[in-house]
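Sample 3 of the quickstart, ligand iron/sulfur cluster:
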Amino acid sequence: MTTTTSTVRLNWGTRYEVTVLDLGLACCGVEVMAALHGRGDDAPEPVPAGAPEVAHVLVVSGTVTDVMLPAVLASYEAMPEPKYVLSVGACSNTGGPYWDSYCVTKGIDQMLPVDVAVPGCPPRPEALLDGLRALHRMVTS
Ligand code: SF4
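Result:
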C-alpha cells in the first residue's frame, strides 16, 4: 500500500488547517497525489505530516482488497475526532471493475462512515478537490 500523509491547507477559516491522510491503494491514488501535491492555482498547499493520529480527513483511493482492509480500518480508528472519510473512485466506492472479485470490498462505505464519495475510474484530480469542497460545505453548514 502506498500511503502519504499531507497537511493540506484549505481556506476553511483562518485558524483551521486540514490534515489529509491519503491511503492510495491503486491507480486512483496517483490522481489523489496529483491533486494534493500539484502546483496548479487550484491545488491546496501540502506540507509533510505525520500519521493517522494527526489526520482529520481519511482519503481512501483505489481497490480495497481484503488484505488491505485491516490497515484501512486501523488508520481510521487511529484518527482523532472529529474525522471524515472521502472515498475516491469506483473501486473504493463500489468495488469498481473488481466488484465481483472474492477478495475486494464492495464499497468502503460498508466498513466506514463515508462522508463524500467521488465518482470516476479514475476521478480527475479536480474531482477530488471538488470532493474536499463538498466536505467543507458539509462540515461548515
Ligand atoms: S476506480 Fe479505476 S482507476 Fe481507480 S483504482 Fe479502481 S480501476 Fe484504478
